[in-house]
Amino acid sequence: MYHPIIQEGVFLRTRVNQKSLAHIWLLHGFGESSLSFREVFSSELAASYSLFAPDLPGFGVSPCQPGKMSLKAAAGVTIDLISELSRNRPVLLVGHSLGSVIATWAARELGETVKAVFSIEGNLTRSDGYFSALAAEFEDATAFYRYFLDLIYERAAQSEAYQRYFASLRFASPKAMMAWGRSSAQLGETGTHGTDFASLKCEKLYYWGTESTPEETQRFIETHGIPNRQYTGDVHWPMIETPDACYHHMGEFFTSVPK
Q1: Cα separation, 70 vs 175, whole angstroms
Q2: Fewer CB near the last or first residue (10 Å), C or N of the chain?
Q3: What order of strands is seen across the sheet that includes strand 10-15?
């Protein structure tokens, strides 16, 4: 279903389609890995696009890279990977949760190479950092990691998405978790990540749940006129809990984007 590769010390799940319309890059959220997007490789998107889902440094099976632990550094790694593996190809970015911030920064840096960004409940406001920003309350990375594992383990008993999340967390580096968490807390203070997404020049769509998206973020979407599509239910991981619908809606959006 997918072909594993290692590029610049980063593990990626890939599926290359020689007749693809564009390259889709799928960027995971806080503490997660490419496992978040496992279903994309058997979705309808695989027939028309090449697919790339990296484990960013310190997450999944990609080891930490000194000096490349923050969100900004993860964006730099992403830009380098895209420049190497998708050279001269149109690129479509998908970001889930905090991964949407990375997708936004990569889109701004790569310019016309990126044709669109599809954000799955991406961080736009302080309220979206309800998990990641918890790291700012801890001094010790290991203490935070153990606390967070216990928190997600309790929720995993009732949800496949949380079970998948817990599986990824078991591979995550506590230092990387802490670095991303502190980056998230800083974003909450500045608020620039939301306006960065809203001001993207490429096509964009914010995909959000009617029960899982904070009210502050819903107001931000409306106030800034962000193109969006709603799905029903309290589901932060639609690509896991309702993959057929999620990837179908993603495909509809990408089909409408000029390549």
Answers
A1: 10
A2: N
A3: 3-7, 10-15, 50-55, 23-27, 91-96, 114-120, 203-209, 228-231
Distance, in Å, from the CA atom of 12 to the CA atom of 221, rounded to the nearest integer, reads 32
Helix extents (H) in the chain: 71-85, 99-110, 141-156, 160-169, 174-190, 192-198, 215-223, 238-241, 243-255
- What Rg, from alpha-carbon coordinates, does the chain have? 17
Q: With 90 as the cut, is the pLDDT of residue 200 above it? A: yes
Tokens of 228: 């969006």
DSSP result, 96-111: ETTHHHHHHHHHHHHG
Give the residue among 84, 76, 97 at the shortest CA–CA distance from 23.
Answer: 84
- Average model confidence (pLDDT) across the chain: 95
Q: Is 153 helix (H, G, I), strand (E, B) or coil?
A: helix
Report whether 52 contacts 34 (CB < 8 A): no
Residue 45 CB neighbours (<10 A): 25
DSSP 8-state class, residue 11: E
User: CA-to-CA distance for 68 and 10, rounded, in angstroms?
Assistant: 12
Predicted TM-score of the model (pTM):
0.97
Whole-number pLDDT of residue 92: 98
